[in-house]
Amino acid sequence: MRKKYIVRLTPQERQDLLVLVKRGKGVPSKIKHAQILLAADVDGPSKSDEEIAENYHCHRGTVENVRRRCVLEGLEAALVRKVQERPSRERKLDGNGEARLIAIACSSPPRGRNRWTLELLADELVRLKVVNSICDQTVRRTLKKTSFSLTVRSAG
């Protein structure tokens, strides 16, 4: 099959990729992409996509994508993983929601309670219409991310 994107590495690019592969340190996907580009180089081995995929235990589509990104976006873009344009799942709490959660957690607990629980915080966020619905584990992860503890009482 005729290749649409032809990889032509300069001697310097080839040397940089060889150093990256031989050193073997760093992100594994970056090393694998470097190996793919070295094998796909038209001035080097110039192997077929199927051969490269078989040799480096990846899908042919991965080889095609790395080759395409190298030609269109440059060598560095081909080595690093593509950043998601939008996350697969939207966050329940944005910055304002996190600030509201922390403000609620720092306030006095409801009457009849000594302290806030994750379930109470989740219910309060829904009651205040910060979010339509939220799981107590999302509250836990958010508080953990901000190093907030429901069990530590301030001394002052």
Description of the structure:
With 156 residues, the chain is mainly alpha-helical. It folds into two domains: 11-79; 95-145. Helix content is 54%, strand content 0%. It contains eight helices and no strands. It has helices at 11-23, 28-40, 49-55, 60-73, 75-79, 95-106, 118-127, 136-145. Helix 2 packs across helix 4 (60-73) and helix 7 (118-127) crosses helix 8 (136-145). The longest helix is centred in the middle third of the chain and has 14 residues, at 60-73. The radius of gyration is 25 Å and the shape is elongated. The termini are far apart. The model has no long low-confidence stretch (mean pLDDT 90).
Biggest sheet layout: none
Report the structural category: mainly alpha
Question: In one word, what is the shape?
Answer: elongated
Low-confidence stretches: none
According to DSSP, the number of beta strands is 0
pLDDT averaged over residues: 90
SSE order, as H and E? HHHHHHHH
The assembly state of the depicted protein chains is single chain
CA-based gyration radius: 25 Å
Helix content: 40-55%
Any idea how many domains?
A: 2
The termini sit apart by 73 Å
Query: Total number of helical segments?
Result: 8
Strand percentage: under 5%
Give a quick set of tags describing it.
8 helices; 54% helix; 2 domains; mainly alpha; elongated; 156 residues
Summarize it.
This protein has helices spanning 11-23, 28-40, 49-55, 60-73, 75-79, 95-106, 118-127, 136-145.
